[in-house]
Amino acid sequence: MNNDIYMSECVHEKSWSFGGILREQWGTEKSTHKQQEYPRVLLQAMAQVRAECMEFLNRHLGEDQNFFHTWLTEEMLMNAIHHGNDFDPELIVEVQIVVSEVIDSSVRKLFCLMHTVDEGMFFNPADVPKPTNDEMLANPTGRGVHVTGELAEKYYGHKSTMSVDASVFPKGRSSGKRVSFQWYREVPVVAAS
């Protein structure tokens, strides 16, 4: 019988922000997303943060989950700038990812939390209509929240949770909300020979 049981824990955390771009810095180039135009400078700022989020997630959770990390990051950031800040580059989006890692003798448990804080109005995720409802089938938006949860369950085999907190605002601002998405992953520990 092997009594070599060990346990360790560590936390990896990183934060970013984008937006707060003054109108005179927007330029004239526009991008279109779901029939709405917005300043291209916003998409460029988001792309840089998205790339850094992806690198962080892949480093701490494994590149084998790259599709899910890409989907989640894109959904969280686009929802913050689209539904939260209505594509206004002057409004701020803050992003934070926390990965808590617990390793025991047989499994590496990864508890993951991604927050976005924007300047939009509070919403209850349970009130977001399911995209499979008849009245939603023709709607070009509204699928991301549901698909993200389903992908987390498919890729990680565990239920994910989404929550919204109306008492958290971007730094220096007086309104907003924090949207949090939490998921969990287990990876077998390979014994050293």
Q: Can you walk me through this structure?
A:
The strands form 2 sheets. The protein has a 5-stranded antiparallel beta sheet, with helices on one face. The chain has a two-stranded antiparallel ribbon with strand order 2-3. The two termini are 17 Å apart. It contains 3 helices and 7 strands, in the order E-E-E-H-H-E-E-H-E-E. It is an alpha+beta fold.
List the helices and strands and how they pair.
Blueprint: E1 8-19, E2 30-33, E3 36-39, H1 40-61, H2 66-84, E4 92-103, E5 107-118, H3 144-156, E6 161-165, E7 177-188
- The run of helices and strands is EEEHHEEHEE
How many beta strands in the DSSP annotation? 7
Cross-sheet strand order for the largest sheet: 1-4-5-7-6
Mean pLDDT across all amino acids: 83
Oligomer: single chain
Annotated CATH homologous superfamily: Histidine kinase-like ATPase, C-terminal domain
Percent of sequence in beta strands: 25-35%
Shape: globular
CATH topology description: Heat Shock Protein 90
- What is the number of helical segments per DSSP (H or I, 4+ residues)? 3
CATH architecture: 2-Layer Sandwich
Distance between the termini: 17 Å
CATH C-level class = Alpha Beta
The tally of domains stands at: 1
Helix content: 25-40%
Rg (CA only): 19 Å
> Unreliable stretches, pLDDT < 50, 5 or more residues?
none
**Structural class designation:** alpha+beta
**Biggest sheet character:** 5 strands, antiparallel
Would you kindly provide a brief summary of this structure?
This protein is α+β, with helices and mostly antiparallel strands and 193 residues long.
